[in-house]
Design goal:
Elements (H helix, E strand, L loop, with lengths): L6 E6 L5 E5 L14 E7 L11 H11 L1 E5 L7
Antiparallel strand pairs: 1-2, 1-3, 2-4
Length: about 80
């Protein structure tokens, strides 16, 4: 995956804290066991991924697996 590519951001409808990145807007490569997935945004090449996640690690995960997953920790008030 090129550093010039968009990263498409999805949230699992099965787990509110599970998110995924994919290299294509449909998210077809995301794991089916956590589907359905809802597209929630795009990280352009000139933007920083959310929660301080390193773009290089996201791109490596997409290149190796077709996706990269991450969990958002629940806040103390959740």
């Amino acid at each position: 995956m090129s550093i010039e590519a968009n990263l498409f951001v999805f949230q699992s409808d099965k787990s509110a804290t599970l998110f995924g990145f994919a290299g294509q807007p449909g998210g077809d490569s995301l794991p089916k066991k956590f589907a359905p997935w809802t597209g929630i945004g795009v990280v352009r090449p000139d933007q920083v991924p959310p929660n301080g996640l390193p773009r290089e690690a996201i791109e490596a995960g997409i290149a190796e697996n077709g996706y990269q997953l991450w969990r958002k920790k629940k806040s103390a008030t959740s």
